[in-house]
Structure to design on (608 residues):
């Protein structure tokens, strides 16, 4: 599996650019909302001054209100002017509320849309990755990234962007209005800013580190839940419920401890800011009181200044919150990108011949060697054989001889380390993946069923199958004989992984899913192990009509079920030990003969 390093900034910008006009509109609403928020104390200042002195307010401001209240609305009495001040504040607040709604609806709405796109892209990317990736990556971890991490990224792009712009603009415009009221008072108020910035700087690194640890522990908890729900029958059969609960409690306790460490840092920051704000209020009250007594500041000006000081407190508190959101979002984004930059070990590339649109089923292995990891011993070693289109071969051998590994190479679920696999003379590396797999019907060793109806599981690989195809498929697999056992026939929902079906029923459903495609290559990987001997014989009898028109490869541990095939390949220690027809191999009295004799003995003991 290879990785192509992705820059987090470039990765997220492509999503932001797609919604750039909504973002621009949202940011404009942020500016308007903040401006109206700051305007309200300014109006309140002159309302209070008007109450105190009626006609002694500052001339440059009085001229504005004189034009608004007296010249335009013909207001003359003090009461009517006070009512006008009150209505103006109400009107400003209402307009502010409208734009705040537009701001949140636009920016948070964009973040939800980006979350939707990102989640779809994440899931789509997972579908392109090869099985080896999923072998070394825990399912719970992938689920955690698709839920918790994506939500953190969404929070960063929605509230994170909104509050970042809002707090910055609010901080700047509040300072300007405070300077307009009184410069020296503003300088005293700003003394609390440098310590706050220093604290934020010190805590950012700790927040990022803690959140990484929180997300990693959340992945561990999610993995534990997923594994234990999937393996609940094993847990119960071994009476391990209490042990599992104890382990889960310990993992949850660790998650709580890590979250509490982050909460303590947040609380420390908020307490520090509030303490510094309290000191600032005390200083401003003392100095501002002296200025009112000396006549250099009005009561309305001091009230407005306190309102702006309160507004100034919010950006400092919000700075820690915004930094926290961005640190969490960036940490989660890196976790998502670490998956998104994973590349499949193989895919269509410049060597792919897209003119290949059909396959007949000739298969050839040329000196194929394979291991799941480069540093591990080879599972298959220098394997060579040919299968003619339309023929049926069987692959047998002891456990661990490489049977399943061999057939997994044909649909290119894995690739050989050495050698070539040819289909119709084409190296499978040159055949488009969708073409190769669309002509293969594959029943793996473990029959996986989706939590859906039996019929939907059967027609999974088709678009618009008709009833005759379904009837034919279930007749071949002998599943039709069990229909009366299902409450709703083929519409019966089988539960997660087909939990409501027996092992044999699951295998037969999987066989139906494979044969309904009318594949040119049919691979059955020990897919009759859970059915009884009589049913197996009936299935093989019906499969004879299917395999007349395709190449069939049957992996089986029951020699009695494959003795009539065209050729039998016996694997041992990753190589071909013997090959030939059933009678030929028995006559050699080699490994195949020993396997056959052992099975005859086992069957005799079972009868006894």
């Amino acid at each position: 599996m290879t990785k192509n390093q992705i820059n987090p900034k470039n990765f997220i910008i492509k999503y932001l650019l797609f919604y750039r006009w909504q973002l621009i509109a949202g940011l404009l609403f942020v500016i308007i909302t903040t401006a109206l928020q700051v305007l309200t104390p300014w109006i309140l200042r002159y309302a209070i001054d008007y109450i105190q002195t009626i006609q002694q307010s500052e001339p440059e401001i009085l001229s504005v209100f004189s034009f608004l209240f007296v010249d335009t609305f013909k207001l003359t009495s003090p009461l009517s002017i006070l009512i006008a001040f009150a209505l103006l504040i109400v009107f400003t607040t209402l307009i502010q509320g409208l734009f705040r709604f537009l701001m949140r609806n636009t920016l948070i709405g964009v973040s939800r849309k980006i979350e939707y796109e990102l989640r779809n892209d994440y899931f789509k990317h997972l579908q392109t990755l090869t099985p080896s990736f999923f072998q070394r990556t825990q399912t719970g971890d992938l689920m955690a990234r698709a839920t918790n991490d994506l939500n953190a990224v969404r929070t960063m792009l929605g509230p994170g962007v909104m509050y970042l712009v809002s707090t910055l603009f609010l901080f700047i415009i509040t300072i300007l209005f405070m300077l307009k009221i009184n410069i020296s008072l503003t300088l005293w108020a700003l003394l609390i800013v440098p310590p706050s910035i220093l604290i934020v700087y010190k805590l950012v690194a700790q927040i990022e580190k803690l959140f990484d640890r929180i997300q990693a522990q959340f992945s561990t908890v999610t993995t534990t839940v997923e594994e234990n729900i999937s393996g609940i029958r094993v847990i119960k059969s071994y009476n391990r419920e209490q042990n599992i609960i104890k382990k889960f409690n310990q993992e949850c306790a660790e998650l709580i401890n890590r979250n509490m460490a982050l909460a303590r840092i947040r609380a420390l920051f908020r307490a520090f800011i509030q303490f510094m704000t309290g000191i600032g209020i005390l200083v401003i009250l003392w100095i501002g009181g002296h200025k009112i007594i000396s006549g250099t500041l009005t009561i309305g000006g001091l009230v407005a200044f306190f309102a702006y000081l309160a507004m100034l407190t919010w950006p400092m508190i919000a700075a820690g919150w915004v930094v926290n959101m961005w640190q969490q979002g960036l940490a989660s984004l890196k976790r998502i990108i670490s998956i998104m930059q994973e590349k499949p070990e193989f895919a269509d590339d410049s060597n792919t011949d897209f003119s290949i649109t059909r396959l007949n089923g000739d298969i050839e292995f040329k000196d194929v060697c394979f291991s799941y990891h480069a540093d591990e011993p080879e599972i298959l070693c220098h394997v060579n054989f040919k299968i003619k289109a339309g023929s049926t071969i069987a692959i047998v051998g002891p456990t661990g001889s490489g049977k399943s590994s061999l057939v997994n190479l044909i649909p290119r679920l894995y690739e050989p380390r050495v050698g070539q696999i040819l289909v119709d003379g084409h190296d499978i590396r040159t055949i488009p993946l969708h073409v190769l797999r669309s002509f293969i019907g594959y029943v793996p060793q473990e029959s996986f069923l989706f939590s859906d109806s039996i019929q939907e599981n059967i027609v999974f690989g088709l678009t618009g199958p008709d009833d005759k195809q379904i009837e034919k498929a279930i007749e071949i697999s002998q599943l039709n004989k069990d229909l009366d056992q299902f409450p709703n026939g083929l519409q019966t929902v089988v539960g997660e992984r087909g939990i409501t079906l027996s092992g044999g029923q699951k295998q037969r459903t999987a066989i139906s899913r494979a044969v309904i495609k009318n594949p040119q290559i049919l691979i059955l990987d020990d897919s009759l192990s859970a059915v009884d001997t009589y049913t197996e014989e009936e299935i093989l009898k019906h499969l004879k009509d299917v395999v007349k028109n395709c190449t069939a490869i049957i992996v089986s541990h029951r020699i009695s079920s494959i003795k009539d095939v065209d050729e039998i390949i016996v694997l041992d220690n990753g190589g071909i030990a013997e090959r030939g027809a059933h009678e030929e191999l028995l006559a050699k009295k080699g490994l195949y003969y020993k396997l056959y004799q052992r099975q005859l003995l086992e069957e005799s003991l079972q009868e006894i």
Summary: The CA atoms of residues 449 and 499 lie 9 Å apart.
